Fold each of these.
Amino acid sequence: MAPTLADPFNDSSALIDFVINQGNGVKGLSELGLKALPKQYIQPLEERMCMTNIVPQGSIPIIDMSNWEDPKVAKSICDAASEWGFFQITSNFLEVAQMLHTSFRLRAKQGWCTVTACSMQCTWVG
């Protein structure tokens, strides 16, 4: 049974039951028309991100793979993978995909990054 506006979630067990056990989810919670959010959904002030100290990021890294044997290219890939988690490449996709799959799979044991050739995303290892 859903709580009424006059009887919002007084304890966390009722909230967990409604949202999780009954399968209503957060969507069901929002459809109740509650006047205030349950405290479990409010992040404490000390854990909130300070919006005044945000440093703007540059654009998504774009790496030219035309000279993929250049050590700077490998460094750019690993930097992009560790800082961004992904990157965009320019060059022949199939050649680059095979190169990334082959060369970085071998270096994964050395703490480099591994690359899924079909998605072209790096996952940092080590």
Note: Residues 62-124 form one domain.
Amino acid sequence: MRQLFIITLLTLLSACGSMPKHADIRSDDRPTIYIDKSGIGSEIHIDGQYLGLVNKDRQTFATTPGKHDIKIISPSGTITKKTIFVQGNTRREITPNQ
């Protein structure tokens, strides 16, 4: 009787001991920041890092989930600063100041 109890207990414990499932963020599930067409020709900085110029072929920039400081400098020198929060697989659109 005692052996049956121990075997049952071990079986139940082993079933509970499986590893938890975690949600993985795949590279295609990362949030993106889209700069409106009025920002073409502007410099974009995310969290102080220069990412390049916005052009018609590159208006979308992948980032990580969380809070980000965005700075867009237009060719005329106008600066747009925004703080945004993005989550996985979302797209945030920003229209720069003119």
Note: The two ends are 82 Å apart (CA to CA).
